[in-house]
């Protein structure tokens, strides 16, 4: 079930104000780029805009009623004139865009209007992106394209220039924590999960996953052995880290958990305990914060951020982690 207008307005008031003005004045762009972090409401807002356009009884002329047949079908992703394109595997392929273009050329099934939502638009292959340009350069009347991305810098400038960009702001952690708890996320993990994801479904899944609990334990253990000798840290990588963090997505999450741990240690030193992610590990944090320095933590955080960049550039994960451990023990940056 996608979010309602009021729910999205609470999360992204500026975005909703812009859309309200465009809808009420009937000045919609033919193509939008919704950019922002995962879980900030981009997809829900795209679906909301589609409902605003197809709703048979909109409130105030633009707020979807959520009860008409069109709103219900869009909420269940089965309206014939609202098309959702998502990556096929790791990318959006040229054939997916070609199939979309075939739909462009047809009249709407129930009206002349069509809406297309492309999720992770930055993952289009070069051929797919070039194919999409044709539609963006020669838009069909009553057709609205909505491109969603977390990394607009990876998209073709020619596509960006043909879209009206709407930026989604990060959601305040305090708000997210309460939202997560209200919807069933375990309270002790909510502050940590609010730093990892803005997506409720992901937070719920992690909250009830033994894998996530074990991931935290491995991260804490790795930090502890880092203070000892390189051999022990390397053994921990081989015996615990690599078997647990197998996929690239999991490896990135492991680095995020390590980064948040270092930030928490720094917050303890700065007397900012209200910002902690690992609130359920307060005594552990207080103990270990006494045995390191601000400078050391800052250097280690820089090293982890460097490792995340290397991971996204497809560096070998095992080599990356081994180098990271050595850099963190030295306290120097990983660049």
Contiguous uncertain segments of 5+ residues? none
**Span between N and C termini?**
43 Å
Number of contiguous helices: 16
* Mean pLDDT metric: 91
From the alpha carbons, calculate the radius of gyration and give it in angstroms: 23 Å
SSE sequence, one letter per element: HHEHHEHEHEHEHHHHHHHHH
Helical percent range?
Answer: 55-70%
Largest sheet: 5 strands, parallel
Reported CATH architecture of the largest domain: 3-Layer(aba) Sandwich
Number of distinct beta strands: 5
- The coarse overall form would be elongated
CATH homologous superfamily caption of the largest domain: P-loop containing nucleotide triphosphate hydrolases
**CATH third-level topology of the largest domain:** Rossmann fold
Domain module tally: 2
The proportion of strand residues reads 5-15%
What class would the helix/strand composition place it in? alpha/beta
Strand order in space, largest sheet: 2-3-4-1-5
Name of the CATH class of the largest domain: Alpha Beta
Protein name: DNA polymerase III subunit delta'
GO molecular function: DNA-directed DNA polymerase activity
Domain DNA polymerase III delta subunit C-terminal: 248-328
Pfam families: DNA_pol3_delta2, DNApol3-delta_C
Plain-language structure description:
The chain is α/β, with parallel strands linked by helices. It folds into two domains: 5-167, P-loop containing nucleotide triphosphate hydrolases (Rossmann fold); 209-330, Zinc Finger, Delta Prime, domain 3. It has 16 helices and five strands. It has helices at 5-11, 13-24, 42-54, 69-75, 94-104, 126-137, 157-160, 173-182, 190-196, 200-207, 210-226, 230-244, 248-269, 282-289, 294-312, 317-330, and strands spanning 31-35, 82-85, 114-118, 143-149, 164-167. The chain has a five-stranded parallel beta sheet, sandwiched between helices. Helix 5 packs parallel to helix 6 (126-137), helix 13 packs antiparallel against helix 15 (294-312) and helix 15 (294-312) runs antiparallel to helix 16. 36% of the residues are buried.
């Amino acid at each position: 079930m996608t979010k309602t207008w009021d729910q999205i307005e609470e999360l992204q008031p500026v975005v909703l104000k812009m859309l309200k003005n465009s809808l009420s004045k009937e000045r919609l762009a033919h193509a939008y780029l919704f950019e922002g972090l995962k879980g900030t409401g981009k997809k829900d807002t795209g679906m909301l805009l589609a409902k605003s356009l197809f709703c048979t009884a909109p409130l105030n002329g633009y707020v979807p009623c959520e009860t008409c047949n069109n709103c219900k079908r869009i909420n269940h992703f089965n309206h014939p004139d609202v098309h959702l394109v998502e990556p096929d595997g790791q990318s959006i392929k040229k054939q997916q865009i070609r199939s979309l273009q075939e739909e462009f050329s047809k009249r709407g099934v129930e009206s002349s209007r069509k809406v297309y939502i492309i999720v992770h638009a930055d993952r289009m292959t070069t051929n797919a992106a070039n194919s999409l340009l044709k539609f963006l350069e020669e838009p069909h009347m009553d057709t609205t394209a909505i491109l969603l991305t977390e990394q607009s810098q990876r998209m073709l400038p020619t596509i960006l220039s043909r879209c009206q960009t709407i930026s989604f702001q990060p959601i305040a952690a305090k708000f997210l924590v309460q939202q997560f708890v209200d919807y069933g996320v375990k309270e002790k993990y909510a502050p940590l999960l609010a730093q990892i994801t803005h997506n409720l479904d992901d937070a719920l899944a992690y909250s009830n996953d033994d894998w996530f609990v074990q991931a935290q334990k491995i991260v804490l253990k790795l930090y502890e052995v880092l203070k000892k000798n390189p051999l022990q840290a390397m053994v921990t990588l081989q015996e615990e880290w690599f078997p647990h963090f197998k996929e690239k997505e999991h490896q990135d999450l492991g680095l995020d958990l390590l980064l948040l741990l270092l930030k928490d240690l720094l917050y303890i030193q700065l007397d900012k305990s209200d910002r902690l992610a690992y609130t359920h590990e307060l005594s552990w944090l207080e103990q270990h914060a006494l045995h390191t320095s601000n400078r050391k933590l800052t250097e280690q955080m820089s090293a982890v951020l460097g490792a995340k960049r290397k991971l996204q550039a497809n560096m070998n994960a095992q080599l990356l982690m081994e180098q990271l451990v050595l850099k963190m023990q030295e306290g120097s940056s990983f660049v």
